[in-house]
Amino acid sequence: MAEKISVAFGNTLAPWVMSESQSGILLDIVKQALEPLGYKVKPYYYPYARRINAFRQKEVDVVCDINLANIKHLSLRGHFSGEIYQYENYFYALSRNKFQFSSMDDLVGSSIVAWQGAMYSLDDKYEKMATANPFYMEIHNQKSQVKLLFNGRVDVIQLDKNIFEYYRLQIAKDGYINVNQGVDKFAFLTPNPGGFMFHSQKVRDDFLTQVNKMIESGQMHRIFQQYGGSYQ
Fold first, then answer.
1. Structural contact between residues 187 and 90, judged by C-beta atoms closer than 8 angstroms
2. Cα separations in angstroms, 152 against 155, 176, 229
3. Could you tell me the pTM of the whole model?
């Protein structure tokens, strides 16, 4: 019988994790790495902070979205995969507006819509800019962010590049909004890396062996491409 491996994912964050369809970049990475080796992956979806407690209490074998900063700050014990992927947050603006931002400070005064919790999840410079900007707001629905940009309702949106490209494709399929407009992106934020923490060293080692093969063969790139994104 296949050994079952339970994996804790955060709440739905398309295209990284989509619980309603049992799919997403992170789920595909784990399944395509472990299931060919005879493991059976069982995903569990938690509120983002709750996934850490589930791992600590050994309710699950693996937890995703872990990096060295998490490990140190939360004193996590286990076997880390290292950084496998990264979130890359950009500021996006329509090219027709011809914004010439050279630093994050230049964004003060522009209308900005970011994802919920961004102000307290990113660096101090970001929090300073957001606090000083009377036209800054955060919303939960990231598809709405992309719609607001292409409808010209806001100057700038801030989100991960793979999330942006995923929803750009989804909105194009809806057919109501022109998403083929030129877009400028501004890279004022450093990438936020992620990986997986395992209780079992053997499973972690098996996972890493397969991930390296997936990278070399182009399989990892194809996973991201399937959701309209790109691997690093």
1. yes
2. 7, 14, 24
3. 0.84
How far from each other are the two terminal CA atoms of the chain, in whole angstroms?
A: 36
Query: 115: closest CA among 76, 158, 80, 79?
Result: 158
Report d(CA 62, CA 58) in Å as an integer: 9
- 55-58: long-range contacts at Cβ-Cβ below 8 A with a sequence spacing of 24 or more? 55/8, 55/197, 55/199, 58/199
Q: How far, in Å, CA of 126 to CA of 123, rounded?
A: 5
Shortest CA distance to 74 belongs to which of 55, 54, 52, 59? 52
- How do beta strands 156-160 and 85-87 pair? unpaired
Task: Tell me the C-alpha distance between 127 and 78, whole Å.
Answer: 32
Phi, psi of 115 (to 5 degrees): -80, 155
| Among 121, 116, 160, 161, CA closest to 136 | 116
Characterize 15-53 residue by residue with b for buried, 16 or more Cβ atoms within 10 angstroms of its Cβ, and e for exposed: bbbbbeeebbbbbbbbbbbbeeeebebebbbbeeeebbe
pLDDT in tens, the chain (232 residues): 679 999 999 887 899 999 989 999 999 999 999 999 999 999 999 987 789 999 999 999 999 999 888 898 889 999 999 999 999 999 999 999 999 999 999 999 999 999 988 887 788 899 999 999 999 999 988 999 999 999 999 999 999 999 999 999 999 999 999 999 999 999 999 998 899 999 999 999 999 999 999 999 999 999 999 988 888 7
* Nearest-angstrom CA–CA distance, 232 and 156: 23
